Amino acid sequence: MQEEKRIALLIDCDNVSYKSIEGVLKVLAKEGMVNVRHAHGDWNSDHLKGWITQLHPNAIRPMQQFAYTTGKNATDSAMIIDAMDLLYSKTVDAFALMTSDSDFTPLVMRILESGMPVYGFGEAKTPQPFVDSCSTFIYTEKLLTEQDDIETERTRPVAKTANELKQDTTLVRLLRNAVEMTSDDDDWAHMGKVGSYISNNSSFSAVNYGYKKLGDLIRATELFHDEVRDKSTMYVKDARKKE
């Protein structure tokens, strides 16, 4: 039996909202056990009041970092040191970074060099270099929970339509390429292999398009044929290929 993956969640509280933390933990629960949960920031700051309400309910450990110098982000440095300590401790198998700051891009690349995946979570303002560097990246606006009903309703992720998905040339190219590269001689590709190929080549997540699963997103594009074999195994085929 394969051991459950141990994940270290490090949160940059200065640059990401507390409102999506429950959603982040639900996503990570599918990947493994989040045995390290550290929230970095200056806890004397009024800016972190919202985060304080989330620490105890979600078993998150606050990591105090005083802002000794104005204009310098001490939280970034402390979080990087924390990550490197955990990396060398060999007590975790993967990292999750919750931040909207591109300054952590080199850290992500260093962790990836060690053979560990990095799950990124950040707001829509997150710079593209950080998004692209992560093994998987999910925008936190897509993970808001019911804890703030009014705001959640206003920002609830809406699944993109077939037309909207088809107009996203980057997405279409990614999906078609993944299916082509993992398909058998009959042009049908096992969904598990398609997902693995995409994960190994991009920070893509179906959640960012309003879908919980990759299979649901592929169906929604209307660009692929799909069929279920052995009652539960999904296969897909580029609709441009002959039946």
What report would you give on this structure?
The chain has 243 residues and is an alpha/beta fold. It has 2 domains: 6-155, 3-Layer(aba) Sandwich (Rossmann fold); 162-238, Nucleotidyltransferase, domain 5. The chain is 38% helix and 20% strand. The protein is built from 10 helices and 9 strands. Strands 3-2-1-4-5-6 form a 6-stranded parallel sheet, sandwiched between helices. Strand 2 (33-41), helix 2 and strand 3 form a beta-alpha-beta unit. Helix 8 packs across helix 9 (191-201). Residues 146-154 have low confidence and may be disordered.
Indicate the topology.
Elements: E1 6-12, H1 21-29, E2 33-41, H2 49-55, E3 61-64, H3 74-89, E4 94-98, H4 105-113, E5 118-122, H5 128-133, E6 136-139, H6 149-155, H7 162-167, H8 169-182, E7 189-190, H9 191-201, H10 214-221, E8 224-229, E9 233-238
Parallel strand pairs: 1-2, 1-4, 2-3, 4-5, 5-6
Antiparallel strand pairs: 7-9, 8-9
Helix pairs in contact: 8-9
